[in-house]
Design brief:
The complex is a heterodimer of chains A (503) and B (439). With 503 residues, chain A is of the alpha/beta class. Helices cover 46% and strands 15% of the residues of chain A. Chain A is built from 22 helices and 16 strands. Chain A has a six-stranded mixed sheet with strand order 1-13-12-11-14-15, sandwiched between helices. In chain A, helix 1 packs across helix 13, helix 7 runs parallel beside helix 9 and helix 15 packs parallel to helix 20. Chain B is of the alpha/beta class. Chain B is 45% helix and 15% strand. The two termini of chain B are 39 Å apart. The chains are: A alpha/beta (503), B alpha/beta (439). The interface between A and B is large, with 73 and 78 residues. Strand 4 of chain A pairs antiparallel with strand 1 of chain B.
Amino acid sequence: MVEAAPSAVACKEKQMKLINLANPNLPVREQRLGSIINYNGTASDLAAQSREGRLRDRACSFTQVSSCASSCAVCLLSLIQDAAVVNHGPLGCSGDFSAFNLVHRYGLVKRNQAAANVRMVSSNLGESDAIFGGEAKLEQAIRDAFARFNPKVIFVTASCASAITGEDIDALTSRLEEELGVPIGTVHCEGFRSKVWTTGFDAAYHAILRKVVKPPREKHPDVVNVITFWGQDVFSELFARLGLKANLVVPFASVEQLRRLSESAATVQMCSTLGTYFAAGLEELYGVAEVKAPPPYGLAGTDAWLRALAKVTGKESEVEALIADEHAAIADELAELREKLRGLRGYVAAGSVHGHSLSAVLRELGMEVAGSCFWHHDARFDNNDPSADSLQHLVKSYGDLPVSICNKQAYEMINQLRRVKPDVFVVRHPGMAVWGGKLGIPTFLVEDEHYSLAYKGLVRFGHRIFDAVNNPSFYRNLSRHARLPYTEWWLKQKSNVFLGAEQ
Amino acid sequence: MSTTIEQPRQVCTLGGQQSVLAIERAIPIIHAGPGCSGKVFSGMAFYNGFQGSGYAGGNAVVGTNSCEKEIIFGGEQRLREVIEGALQVMDGDLYVVLTGCTADLVGDDTPSVVNEFRERGVPIVHASTGGFKGYNHQGHELVVNAIVDQLLEPATEIIPNLVNVWSVLPYHDTFWAGNLHALRQLLEGIGLRANILFGHDSGGLNAWKQVPAAAFNLVLSPWCGLSIAERLNQRYGTPFLHYPVFPIGGVETSNFLRAVAQYAKLPPEQSEAYIARQEAYFYHYLDRSADFFMEMRWDLPERFITFADSLYALGISRFLVNEIGIQPGVQVITDHPPEAARPALQQQFATLNPKISAEVVFQDDSHDIAQLIASRKYSQPPLILGSSWDRDLARKIGGYHLSIALPITDRLVMDRAYVGYQGGLRLIEDIYAAVLNTY
């Protein structure tokens, strides 16, 4: 269906293909990237085991609930401006609609547009559908989404129930696609398929690559794709100074923007956990150069990221000037912040690469990272390039640090936080921040993933950390009255007692 | 029942998880895929007035995170080890295993696994809440009935004047915590002991153990909770009073309290004295605000449209018609009342007062009904009492909007109550704040 640009074919012939557009499904991260969800040790050891192909997961006999691929797929797809999402499952699978609606509404308002509701429907599978099959309901839901939203593409997200009952969603979507004349992408983000919820990102990108992105009609050497979530746009201003244009995707992008991703000169990411599959896919299919570098957080990471961008866009002198300017612009403020924050001990909890980034930011600000909890770990990325190894970059730039990997296991994290007693808890994920607060630890939730990005972000973040530590009243009061749901026995254990043998 | 649902106002049966979390020191154990519990928490709690994790909710919920292995080979052993872990790690008095689509579809024998633990003396029950079975109203009833069937013992003696209260759905009703607290105060005001069972200071497992000892059950809801009262009637012979109107404001709350007092054969002196005091309080403030109602009436809404479950739609309609004196527009009922319950509900709306009836639509898909509402002509800006989904619709028809039903993302809700005399005052304040805020 899609013809790769000649240059892409030439440069990729020698490698094994990552992307199979003929197949609506794709391998999960455990298979593709050797991803794990349980580990206790150090950053240097984890990086070494990953690099040397020795990393094995361990099972955890006791667990609290985590997240599934479905939410990760929908968090991207629901924010595409002229697409529609059909969630094919029972109504609880749509429990996150209102969450993404809030993100959608405030995202539009922050972008100076009128707030609007998301364009999503549930096929609302019920008991008889579980017995007799839910294809009729799915067909109705697709037709309704088409009629109601007039979308340029429809994404159908599969659920555990639709998969277990053995529905052939792909056959149905192919038939309706032809009849309705609109691309319909099946997104295989069934919750049970992977222990690593970020597989849902890959499933969403796979559907976008299959159904939306077209071969280039022309090339734009000044346009750079930026794979990101929905944080504020800090890229456009930075790139403009290099003579480049930032093309932020997927949230809040239009379908037309996505169709033409193949025409850009390069793709950068703020987090390879998010964009690994998409960036590698755009390079493999259309020769859009993936910038392979550590993420742009902390001076070392940002410098390296910009220099890698310079290399693929031919902007070496502009980037060197920008780096020099930006270093100079924040030098005094950064020195002052380092003085104020020196010796403070932080604990970082975030999803893999962004956790590495936040750790780098704390170290750059002169703080200690006394503990960390990352939600999973990918032993490699889809590009298989060591220069994108964010964990190794962290160790090399700032030294070793204690690392644990667990899929948002609050009981493990609380156990560690009580032991480590950090001065500040920096956390990326909703649902996890509250447990730091209940322990009386000043807690900063990083809602905007670009908040600490690049140079200005570094100092902006430093000020926020200082504010959080400087007035801990809320946390102190809360901790005096909050009761934790854990037994005394548990709080005295080591946090990894439920970990089993390597698998 | 609609097929497609846009802008959901319920979640699936697994929503019963939030009813467990509303019981003090109860620990839910979710035997399902890894994301189900979080989605239910998102939909029913966090993005519904920003109700948080509380004691053991949110990411503290125990779960098996069932993946391919449990789907292919069955998840019973996995459930067993997670329950063992939960007993070691989680500090709780009651454990409730809720199954999701995965466990219920692959046919895990969850009751047997749970039985093994109950036979060891663990206070643990199982509710089969696979999401495809229905909505969270059913999930709530399944959880309650599981506790009744699997844990409660018959009472040795009946505690006089003890009443179990089955009313608003925990978490689904964004104002449930305040409402139940206020209901307890009202019932105690007329001389009863109210066993509210959910929420802060409701007594946890001990209060639940007293359920069979109640003198009667009160179902304060158009239909949800009736199956619980019927079950308790069959098991323990406990009689029940079904009062469908959720009472808001002076008129309705006094009606409600008199009905309960009469049913419970309470001495009228105490109940009437209490009612008189409460009415005096309520009407003192209504009287003091009368200037506002007279002077601002030229731009106050004359029609109200409710977009909520049957409990709220009926309660609010009766209040706004019989207390504030405005007219009902279409009433959209979003909670799938069983067919058998619909004629009585329709009759309630047909007789809001002797002269006034309201048009009722049973619909949980927002699309068609939004079109219907938008197609009507309004001489004055109407008031939409609904969820945060409905803000754009209100703007489109030039109306006012207040979020009173799931999902609520434009308000932070703590202990606000809309039930009772003071609840009526709160609802008036909130409605007219929403109106005045638009200037």
